[in-house]
Amino acid sequence: MEQEKNRTFRDKISYVSEQGRRVWIYAKRPAGKLYNYRMLLGYFLITIFYIVPYVKVNGNPLFLVNFIERKFILFSKIFWPQDSYILFVTMISFFIFIILFTAIYGRVWCGWACPQSVFMELVFRNIEYLIEGSPAEQRKIDAENLTFKKIFQKTLKHLIFWIIAFSMGFTLFAYLMGIEKLLSIFYGTLLISKTTVVVLFVFSTVIYLVFAKLRELTCTIVCPYGRLQGVLLDKNSMAVSYDFKRGEPRGNNSKDGDCIDCKSCVQVCQQGVDIRNGIQLECTNCSACIDACNKIMLKQNKPKGLIRYASLNNIENGTNFKMTPRIIIYSTVLVLLLSFLITLLATRKDIQTTILRTPGTLAFQQEDGTVGNLYNIKIINKTHNQISVTLKLISPSGNIVVAGNQQLIVKDQELTEAVFFVNLSKDIVQEKDLEIEIAIYAGEELLETKKNTFKGK
Ligand code: SF4
Ligand code: SF4
């Protein structure tokens, strides 16, 4: 089999020459049905990416991942550090989903939805085509000496690239610290530190370098997901595949297979891959080669799909997709995790309280002769309404005195801390520790009861 004989593709990366130099990829602009779908999805995702930081529900952003203040907002619901177990389960479920999705559909994420591919193919490359022209013209510009035209084209292109990179960095920072704080850069009322502004500019420059210079290398050298493909894919995984049974031997003779060796599929590949050599590490499953080959097949009056989404088993043996034990195990784990996550979200309390005896304090005698212990209370209000919390001692009999105000006002989506005394009559207090029970009310509504210990000495 031609494909088996030609194994050299497994020893080198398409964009590194024999001498170890970078081979710059000048890819042709794809065109076709799948590219149109990809554009629709890609521009939709880009719009979502830029709009979300400005969207507010009940005064809260839709998403915020503020690691510094440890404040996380998902779909306008605030998750506090106390909710981190929910975020942990969400992340694990997401990773399992990615693994399962990859095991079945291969690298569809990479070619269709990954921000690197979406911005590279639909934004940066299109600007390049607009300013420098076709791949042949780009190659000519790069090879020629410095001229006024070349300086102008390169400066304009890189300036636009940097501005887009800055807009991406700015938006990513908005997800981290909120859009108001970031917009203050432009309004002269700086709400973030100057260091953050410098970090933002450095970060934007890194993004610019990724899209202007690193490009396709990101998918194989930097991205951990790209590197995992070898273990995630098997013979049943769907991938952009060349039907070598139908296509080989290549050529234009009547005895030859359907591939006329026109290399259209190679010319459109932004990863520099010749998919006819089999599934390769660099291939992001973008489907540009499918569109290119389908166009050739139509011209040749041959059926489409010489390059198509198919598993190796499908190409080799004509078998359709089947559930493997691996997929069944992944699916079961995913369903269990999702059920657990839904239960966690459904039982998540809107108001969360923590009561701890103030460390290092002992029992002391109050002016009225009772014995007191000091406690700290933390109340997190996850609702969108301000609440007024009162504490009542259920057992044993005694009273609670909150330092400052007997009623604790907790603003919406905020955390309030206070200290309070539990005072018990001398007759009840014994040498050893007593168990006490405290009720926490929001208005008339009993939120919960908490047990704690009361030091007798
Ligand atoms: S081989 Fe085809 S699917 Fe893979 S990256 Fe190249 S054009 Fe995209
Ligand atoms: S585009 Fe199709 S026919 Fe042309 S070289 Fe590629 S696989 Fe062969």
What labels would you give this structure?
four-stranded antiparallel sheet, 16 helices, alpha+beta, elongated
What's this entry about, in short?
The protein is an alpha+beta fold.
Written account of the structure:
- The chain is α+β, with helices and mostly antiparallel strands.
- The chain has a domain at 351-454: Immunoglobulins (Immunoglobulin-like).
- Helices cover 44% and strands 19% of the residues.
- The chain has 16 helices and 16 strands.
- The protein has helices at residues 2-5, 33-51, 84-105, 108-112, 115-132, 135-143, 148-177, 179-187, 194-214, 217-222, 224-232, 244-247, 264-267, 288-299, 312-317, 325-346, and strands at 56-57, 60-61, 63-66, 71-74, 77-79, 239-242, 307-310, 351-357, 364-365, 371-381, 387-395, 398-402, 408-410, 415-424, 434-442, 445-454.
- The strands form 5 sheets. Strands 8, 9, 10, 12 and 14 form a 5-stranded antiparallel beta sheet that branches. A 4-stranded antiparallel beta sheet has the order 13-11-15-16, with no helix packed on it.
- Helix 7 crosses helix 8.
- The termini are far apart.
- The relative contact order is 0.11.
- The chain binds iron/sulfur cluster (2 copies).
